[in-house]
Each structure stands twice: as structure tokens, then as C-alpha cells.
Design a protein that fits this description.
binds zinc ion, binds 3-propyl-2-oxoglutarate, ten-stranded mixed sheet, Jelly Rolls
Amino acid sequence: MAECFQTETENKKRFTIPLKQIPRFSVNDSQANALINSREPVIITDTHLVSSACNWDLDYLSRHIGDGLFTVYRSKSHKFKYYSDKKSLAIKEFTPPTSQEEMPFQEFVNLIKSHPKSSSERIYLQQALNNSVGPKIVEQFVNFNWSYVTGLQRSNNWGPLTSNLLLVGMPGNVTPVHYDEQENMFAQIRGSKRLVLFNPDQFENLYPYPVHHPHDRQSQVDLDNPDLNRFPNVTRLCGYEGVVGPGEVIYIPMYWWHQVESMTDSEENISVNFWYMAGNNEKIEYPLSAQQKVSMTRNIEKMILQALNDADEVAPFMRMMVLGRYT
Ligand code: QVW
Ligand code: ZN
């Protein structure tokens, strides 16, 4: 018994997920667009997508961003795992891993500046840019390289832009591995971020929460300390990693898994993302793509829950349908 246990721990320690480098190309290199067109991740340099905002830092933003309210998350650890407020109401035993408050930008800056180095509590501002921002910021926003992203939107048949999320975090903040149902051109302004990406075909190796769960679209796996007993397929994972620095952009294709880590190379870390809705030009070819299968899985899960009208009935129903029949 003791021997078995030891081997287990050793295996856990030795296990690392194999990661390839995310390709990096200049916007002038046709290979950048080729990867975007084939829905593969790429880090793109020289886009000047957010060059107009290269002077953004805490002081500049607090002077010019206006007195609108910003959503700030607090976490007792370095992890900021997203949860849906709406879905958390339906689940009795759910304790949110972060708390959320609305405050003026100024107040957020005060919190960061007075933050004791010894404290394990961290904060992360995540707010869609809106029309409450001051005139200087409006001008810089208008001067984003819109023709670049609009060109991509057209040539790849993405839907409309849904939002530009402004992300201001502390070094070390981590957004744990999840996928989004939108195309993402993610632009780095200050500091750098390390991204770990996985193809949508890694679905069964990442064990996403059920669709009705507040952590829908998030992996149940803690990549820093995976529980291989609960999630044995984690040993089959293989992915990509890369670092985006100021002025660089990464394309995160819809349904691609990503974990994002603010690196400790700057006092604050600032990014703006460009989220686009899915296009509706999908032609159906067989076999279906991993993206299409993820989308289909989501729809089936939603349909079963809606029909049964009780989250607790979903798993027994699915087992009844599959076990001993399709297995
Ligand atoms: C990060 C992300 C962001 C990751 C967080 C959005 C709330 C995305 O842009 O920079 O921490 O996941 O899709
Ligand atoms: Zn995301």
C-alpha cells in the first residue's frame, strides 16, 4: 500500500502537460491571416490594433477614464474563476470563488496601491468599455486600428463585435482554463500575459462543468495541480503556450480552451479584448469539427435539462440512455 501511494505522488509530481509554442507572425506575413482563417491561434505583431492606447497606465486611466463604475473581482487566491450569477441562484450549495463589486476607477487604483504585498487577496478589474469614459479615452478608442479587425471580421464571417473588455490586473492573477463562445482578438497594452491554449478536441481531457452549472465553460481541472484520480484523461492533454507583450495581439479562436496568467514583469497588467459573435455561415461537412460537436453537446445538455426541469435528473437520465446500450 505504502509503495503504491509513493509511486502515485511521484507520478503526480513528474507529470507535466506537453505544450508547443503558439506561432508568432507579423501582420505583414500572410501566415498570420492564414492561421486566423483556419481558426487556429496565432500571436500577431505590428497590428497597431491598440497603439493609440500605449500610454495607458493606472495614473493615466484614473485621470481620464471618467467617473463611471467598473466591475472589480476580489479573490482570496491568485485564481479568478468565472461563474454565472444567474446560474448560481439555481444551485443551493454553490459558494462563489470570487466576490464582485462596482466602483469608480479611482477607487480600484487606491485598492491596488494600498495593497499589502503580504496579502493573499487579489483584485482584477474587468469592465466592458462604454460611453461613460472621458474624451481622451474616447479619442484613443476611436483610433484603435478598426480597419484591421473589421477586415478580419469580414473575411472570416464573424458576427458583430459584442464588447471590448478592459482588463486591469495585478501581476500573478490567473484566469483559469475555460472556453468562450465568441471569437477573440486579445490585445495586450501593459505588462505581459502567458497563455495556455487547448484545441476544442481536448473536451474529454478537460472535463468541463455541466452547462447548467455556474462554472459552465470552465474546466473542472486545476492545471497547476491536476487531480489525476478524478480526471485521468488529463495525462493525455497536449496544448500550446505563448506570451503576449505590449503591442501584441493573440487570436483566441471560439471554443479554444485558454488559461491566462498575468506575468510579474510590470506593476499592473492591462489588456483589451475584442469579442465577436459567431458567424452564421457554417457549412455542414462530415465528420463534424470539434467546435461543432462542442456546440451540439451544449444544445443537447440544455434540451435535456429543459425537458426534465430538474438538474438532479440529468445525470441519471443520461446514464439510463447510454449505459449498457451504447457502451
Ligand atoms: C484574462 C479571457 C480574459 C483572460 C478574461 C476575460 C474576463 C478572454 O478575454 O486576460 O485574464 O478569458 O477571453
Ligand atoms: Zn476567455
